[in-house]
Amino acid sequence: MDLNSYLSSPGALSVAQLRARMVALGYDVKNDAQIRQWRSRYKGRLPSPENCMGLELASGGLMRRQDLRPEDYWRTWPELAEEARLA
After folding, report:
1. Over 90: is that where the pLDDT of 84 sits?
2. Helix (H) and strand (E) counts in the chain
3. What residue ranges do the domains of the chain occupy?
4. Residues 49-59: what's their mean pLDDT?
5. Which of 21, 53, 61, 69 is 20 to 30 A from 77, alpha carbon to alpha carbon?
6. Distant-in-sequence, close-in-space partners of 15: CB < 8 Å, separation ≥ 6
7. ∠10-13-15 over CA atoms, to 5°?
8. String of b and e for 7-28 (b: at least 16 CB within 10 Å)?
9. CB of 71 within 8 A of CB of 81?
């Protein structure tokens, strides 16, 4: 599930709650606007690989790193590409 789908789903955390959870987990998210920019891919902005991990953890695994960066996730997490190939 990508970020927009997650935030649009019933029962999802709000942008502010998601950011607070990421910060509590030790991820550096400057403000809520940063998450909204990732959501809309404003000017091509995507969460960094590090923040993809934070989003995955903060959502309890509902958002997956490979869905947050579908164009290049395999470069950062080759093990995820291998899992997808074997599935």
Report:
1. no
2. 7, 0
3. 3-86
4. 97
5. 21
6. 7, 32, 35, 36, 39
7. 120
8. beeeebbebeebbebbeeeebe
9. no
